[in-house]
Amino acid sequence: MERIHRRLSGLIAPAAVPYWQVAPLAGVFAVFFLLPLAITVAVSFWRYTEYSMSPALVGDNYASVFAGCLAELPALCVTFKTYVSTLKFCLLVWLVTLVLGFTVAYFLAFHVRSLTWQTVLFLLCTIPFWTSNVIRMISWVPLLGRNGLVNTVLVASGAVPAPLEWLLFSDFAVVLAFVHLYTMFMIVPIFNSMSRIDRALLEAARDAGASAWQTVWNVVVPLSRPGLVIGSIFVVTLVMGDYVTIGVMGGQQIASVGKIIQVELSYLQFPLAAANAVVLLGAVLAIICTMTRLVDLRREL
Amino acid sequence: MAQRRPPAFYALATVFGLFVLFLYGPMLTIIVLSFQGPTGGLTFPLHGVSTHWFVRLWGGLGVVDIWAAFGRSLKLGAVVMMLTVLISLLAGYAFRRRFRGSAFVFYTAVASLIVPSIIVSLGIAVEFRLLDALIRWAAESAGLAGLVDGFTTSAGTFTSGLGAHLTWTLPFGLLIMFAVFNRFDRRYEEAARDLGATPRQTFRHVVLPLIAPSLVGIALFGFTLSWDEAARSSQALGADQNTLPLELTGLTTTVTNPEIYALGTVTTGVSFAVIVVSLLLIRALQRRRA
Q1: Going by CATH, does the domain composed of B66-289 fall within 3.50.50.60?
Q2: Are A272 and A195 in contact (CB under 8 A)?
Q3: Do A31 and B235 touch (CB under 8 A)?
Q4: pTM value?
């Protein structure tokens, strides 16, 4: 009896307040994120036919994801090839957005002196993020197409004899679109880290005789590390799971892990798609762990 | 004060300028091309200037009911926006105190941001299929099979679709609330309490005016992220319930005239209207606060 009473008063006690305040958020994530993930893992071990799926605990789906992957070595099976291709995009996009994002953030944080201008220019970089990604992809078509602006200018100026075919619906277009869409995910966290750097440290470096480059490399880069890591995690995971950008900019011709999952879903092969999703999730987690570990290691050295 | 700018400034300013051109250039091209004359095509040159393609767009895009999708996206965006502000605000308050499981909730939110959208979408799709099966099974075993005769699926714009969008907007809302309350001066609240204000009054007259600009910011994220979302809702919407970005993705391969640019201009117009209104509102609220 006393226990029940304590429980009841506990519900209205101040200590209970944060629990009901966080409940809606926790509820949404439980129902639409954690539970779906758990179901995905479970279903990846189920059996399926053309029109139904049934609970089981079999590794068949994983076997078909990796079908022939060991036997065909050193040639790459479809799954490995797709991952190599996706990882290649990851690496390229990561390098470009890292350098570009760092440069832009550095300019905003250290070279724009008035706070008003800093806010205005920062907003200028963020506004496209609030507009449609698909539209931003399509908007490259009139520029890069066979009869697009870039080809017209190149041919007219005699720089190339015939229109370049690799500008659109190609690896190049995919990387370009990723950089276009995701550099902002680098700029914001890096800028955030940079604006916390004490300006006196830069002065101290200069007084101690460091060149501008040395200051950037030995003072700014290490102190921007959290932002660099957060931005990198964003960009890499966004590219790893993408299928819309690779689809639109690759002219639906380039394979990606996300695309494989999407196609399997359109054939209602849920367990197979789930197995692929679990493998993708594993790959993404492995990359994130490596990234955070690499950074921690550097700190210890 | 009038320090001379180092040479690096000009180099970096050039890079920045080119980056901004890179960001906005393509967008401007399709806005310009959407006013293409009736005989014009997908690329330059402009064959006159007209609103021909907007008029055609207004009449619909063949088999695709684009305006139904437009309306669905608008409604969903509005609901996502309101829920994102409300849920983030409450959660932001919760995180100002210690509570058990706070680290778990926080990392779940971060994970929701990072886990590839196609995986979340797949999970929600399977979850609702299983739910459908469960509903049918429950109705049949209760002898009420007649009740579920017309039942097809529980997935839809405002069930699975709404949930999918919230997993994407809430992490942003929560992170913004963190930034807000980290910088929040608790002495304002203490002063209000000392003057005899109830918690409700303190919130209404002290805290709310101070954080209002940030709440508008969360609303901006909530609406625009939902308005543009494609990957996460791709599998998680009911049949024929596609949102605008999903229809757009499909149209990229089928529409070969400037109608698609006109649609792009209209979509971007909605985004820009929301952005401008939000930014003006934020500025007005900040002025009033000062």
Answers
A1: no
A2: no
A3: no
A4: 0.90
